[in-house]
Amino acid sequence: MAFPGNILRLALAARLVLAAAPGRAQSGAADGGRACAAAHLGARAAGAAASAGHRAQLDRYDVTYYKLDLALEPTSRDVAGSAWLRVRVGPQALDSLAFDLYQAPVGAPAGAPTLAIDSVVVNGRRAPAVRRAGPEATAALAAPAPAGALADARIYYHGTAPHGNTAAIGNGLDRRDSVRYAGAWHHYQVLWSLSEPFSAQEWFPCKQVLTDKADSSDVWVTTTRPNKVGSNGVLARTVPLPGNRVRYEWKSRHPIDYYLISVAVAPYQEYVAYANPAGGPRVPVVNYVYDPGALDFYRAEIDRTPGFLENYARLAGPYPFANEKYGHCMAPIGGGMEHQTMTTQDGFTFTLTAHELFHQWFGDHVTCASWADIWLNEGFASYGEYLSLQAFAPPADAASWLGAARGYALRNPGSVRVPDPDTASVARIFSYDLSYKKAALVVHMLRDLLRDDARFFRALRTYQQRFGGGTARTADLQAVFEGEAGRPLGYFFRQWIQGQGYPSLAVAWNQVGPSATVRTRETASQPGVTPFFDLDVDYLLTFADGTFQRVRHRQTQALEAFDVPVGNRQVAAVAANPDGALLLLANASAPDTGLALSARPAAGALLGVFPNPCRDVLHLPPLPGPATAEVYDATGRRVLAQPVSPAAARLATQALAPGLYLLRLAGPGGSSLGQARFERE
Fold this sequence. Notes:
alpha+beta, Immunoglobulin-like, 22% helix, elongated, disordered N terminus
């Protein structure tokens, strides 16, 4: 169900705790992912999908450059000015230019907010006609633009951006007359944009196609002093104008997606800090805060930003926009929005600031190529919260964050991948449980799967290097991690991204002499969709003497059994997934004296065999006569049968893969001569 943006924002705000005390790490209810989701859900456009015909027209060109030249004031949602789109014509000559720009729906009352097109000028010639159908606009060209050529389109327009209280749902451009911080309301007029996912057309003419990033952009805004204007890139200059007005000229020379272009206008106070990432240039962190009181209240949290940036640059690669800046504009959006180089936030908490900053790598530098894969943006940004907690907060905070994330992910049976993204609701795209929390746990499970932080973070850097400045899909990330894992990971992405639900493990164990046998039975919460999860599970064995032993076993079928050599220690307990690295429910393990063997029941004395572990040959004890050696793997399958004699009491093991095995010696007629467990290296 769709709600007007302001009603939905109030409902979400009741669940948020955003005005946390400065200087305190926030991990729990006030986490950055929830605040980010709230901001996105508050910006709901009327629809996602363009008509087939309009999309075909949009695909006839690529945007290379946006320049907005607008007049804006924080006292209204009025917009007036122009958008300059430089486009590269496709393989066929272009006789019309399609673009997106909001128009009040048919039947809207007189005076309803709408954006009127004054003229469209392409390559210096005015378009003779402009057809509009809702937000879809098409301008006929006075002369066709040749195939492969660059064309300049200037669209002059004016009007009032829509608001949630009118026929349109969503606020691409919004404003307030009051803001809240330090537990009190303050009279303050502020205007801001928030275009993700479908609302850029509510305030400027654009092409709303994720895979078509512009190579560069400029945002010029004229406003009344003492207002300041925050936007993407570098503030090239401010130009004084008559009538106490000023023009802010921002420029960015990095690729940028349509929904990451932004403005914020208010009588801001500027506060600049600096990050010094190792091996990179000094990065200014430019903060536009409401006023001196807001700066005093949030300064300690704002000052975390340089350290976060330096840590991310070390882990995921250089800050992508180091030659421009990073920064924040304050606006009462109910959370944060990762506008490229200048995030919009309504306040500053540990996890919100960490989340939006990591978006600069995951979401801005590399952008999901489809809303189906929004987890590539939001899952990694959410995991950035955990990385920052690991680096800058007490260990208990990071553990608490991970536990809370598991709780949110377990309560929603859906898939991380958004089905039917062209028709999915905004609420589904920005599902807190799935696109944020479960997705973050997928990232954590990839880290656990590699078992090597050096390889994990190298994979993140490879992903940034390979797809930076462009877009990526889940298959692209999979290929990067397969390169680090050295094996196919299709099963992992099928079950955790496309699949639904989670697995549960029932664990039983028993000890016989120097070996412990562990049996696991897996069940899936959504067996009709994902009947089984292939898992690399860690087990922690606790011994009566207070020592521990950790082993990893791959769950490749619903019922598994495996042996663990434990020597002369007595097993007291076995715990699966002890660190919570997997999205997995594991019951408290129970001893089971029926588990004498991991492979199959067998009688006979325990045999002394050596060397154990072995490589090519396992030596057996003296035999009373000819025998047959049968070897079983951990699942109970017989994998080797070999005759042995008293004169050559040894077993050739070259054909066995490394692992744990059960050896059973049978005499004539099948009588049991004994058994042993051994490991082949």
